[in-house]
Design a protein that fits this description.
Elements lengths: L2 H15 L17 E7 L7 H10 L7 E2 L6 E2 L8 H7 L11 H18 L2 H9 L11 H7 L6 H7 L2 H13 L4 E12 L1 H16 L4 H18 L3 E12 L3 H11 L8 H9 L5 E13 L7 H25 L7 E6 L2 E3 L12 E9 L6 E11 L25 E4 L10 E5 L1
Parallel strand pairs: 1-2, 1-3, 1-4
Antiparallel strand pairs: 4-5, 5-6, 7-8, 7-12, 8-11, 9-10, 9-12, 10-11
Helix pairs in contact: 2-13, 9-10
């Protein structure tokens, strides 16, 4: 059975009753978001690992993305160690003396992640969630309808216009929904500040001893000592995040519907089983970004230290997501304007907003012939540097942080060109 017949024979009722694209809805809470799943790369080097894991698990999910979490939430690199044959295939060293080399392990990590994704069938799990797969392997379109804002009540009207629109709607969903599904792998490392602080202190002392005047020399030594005592406290938290995008193409979709699709009206156990073993669903590596935060104080004594560690862990992760968005256009989020007089949107420091940042204002447009959506730029706005919303985790609680009386970021620009509900997206 070819792809066209499959769509017509199995899901025609679905098209006619469900996959009908709603007219433009300008409500500020209705716009298609990218979907995201996050995974923590485990490490035995975490100080108070239970606190780190708990902080990661309790971190608020990035609200600008659909939560597409599946049951694979952590990855232990030890469980996916590369074989010598795999290392040779990737051009990596597999000499025993290099097995513990940090640089070598860093080079191996992208291949370890790929191996993990393949062996855990992560792509299959992500696709299965999109199609609300049941225990017996059957699919439905309820989640796609919900996230794509398809309106079943308009089925008759759309059918009267053209049945092509229904088919186009599925293509629209695949391109804008499944095609914008991401996985972020987060690797966190803690570095004791004592070693770099001591190295800097030794350099500062050496420079101070070169000063000829005794009083000035003693002042320089004292200043170096103060700086060392301050810098040596606590740890530095480093986070590197690897961004992957689900590869959902027309050819992948065709194989999926032809070879694996089963639903409540058409069930084939062999196709359901074939989906489980399929290697069709893979991820494309987009890139990586890093972030660093200072964790002051001891990590082994007071509860307040655990609280601080939780705050820093969550903020560090948010920071690296913001860096990924700045660097990679495909991962950038859209946010609606909640007001035009003044111009305001629910984005802030959590998303990495800084003074001088620019955003394009987009208007969602619908092609009446194909049913596909597009976004046209209608203007550019600038962040009002005096009114940037601090929406970071636990904001206003630190000694150097002041509570705010705003709950959105303000912008400057030609507000007469815009209306509430238009979407904004950061540009370089």
């Amino acid at each position: 059975m070819n792809f066209t017949l499959k769509i017509t024979g199995i899901t025609c009722a679905l098209f006619f009753s469900h996959l009908c694209y709603a007219e433009l809805n300008l409500e500020t809470d209705k716009y298609r978001r990218s979907s995201l799943h996050t995974i923590l790369i485990e490490s035995d080097a975490f100080p108070q690992k239970d606190i780190i894991m708990a902080a990661y698990d309790s971190a608020p999910f990035p609200e600008k993305y659909n939560n597409h979490t599946v049951d694979v939430k952590t990855m232990n690199p030890k469980n996916y160690a590369l074989t010598n044959a795999e290392k040779e295939m990737y051009g990596l060293s597999f000499d025993a003396k290099d097995s513990g080399n940090i640089d070598n392990l860093q080079k191996e990590l992208p291949y370890i992640i790929e191996k993990f994704m393949n062996e855990s069938k992560l792509g299959n799990k992500m696709v299965a969630k999109w199609f609300n797969r049941s225990a017996n392997g059957s699919f439905d379109m309820s989640l796609i309808m919900d996230r794509g804002f398809y309106d079943a009540t308009e089925a008759a009207a759309n059918l009267a216009k053209s049945t092509v629109r229904g088919v186009a709607s599925l293509g629209d969903a695949g391109e804008e929904l499944l095609g914008n599904t991401f996985v972020v792998m987060n690797k966190m490392s803690f570095v004791d500040n004592e070693l770099p602080a001591l190295a800097a202190y030794e350099i500062a002392k050496a420079l101070a001893y070169k000063i000829q005047q005794p009083i000035a020399q003693q002042a320089a030594l004292a200043a170096a000592k103060v700086a060392y005592e301050k810098a040596r406290q606590g740890y530095s938290l480093w986070t590197v995040s690897f961004l992957y995008q689900l590869e959902w193409t027309d050819s992948v979709a065709a194989v999926f519907y032809n070879d694996y699709w089963v639903d409540s009206t058409y069930y084939d156990a062999s196709k359901a089983a074939a989906f489980d073993t399929s290697n069709l669903f893979r991820f494309k590596y987009i890139g990586s970004q890093k972030s660093k935060s200072l964790v002051m104080g001891s990590l082994t004594e007071q509860r307040s230290d655990a609280d601080m560690l939780t705050i820093v862990t969550i903020r560090n992760i948010d920071k690296v997501y913001a860096n990924l968005q700045r660097e990679y256009d495909v991962f950038k989020t859209k946010s609606p304007l909640i007001s035009v007089d003044p111009l305001m949107a629910k984005v802030g420091m959590k998303e990495g907003i800084e003074k001088g940042d620019r955003f394009e204002v987009l208007e969602k447009q619908l092609d009446p012939e194909t049913g596909r959506t597009s976004y046209a730029r209608k203007g550019i706005i600038f962040v009002d540097q005096s009114k940037i919303w601090d929406n970071r985790y636990n904001a206003g609680q630190g000694e150097d942080e002041k509570p705010q009386n705003i709950d959105a970021t303000y912008f400057k620009g030609p507000k007469k060109l815009f209306y509430e509900g238009m979407l904004i997206r950061q540009i370089k």
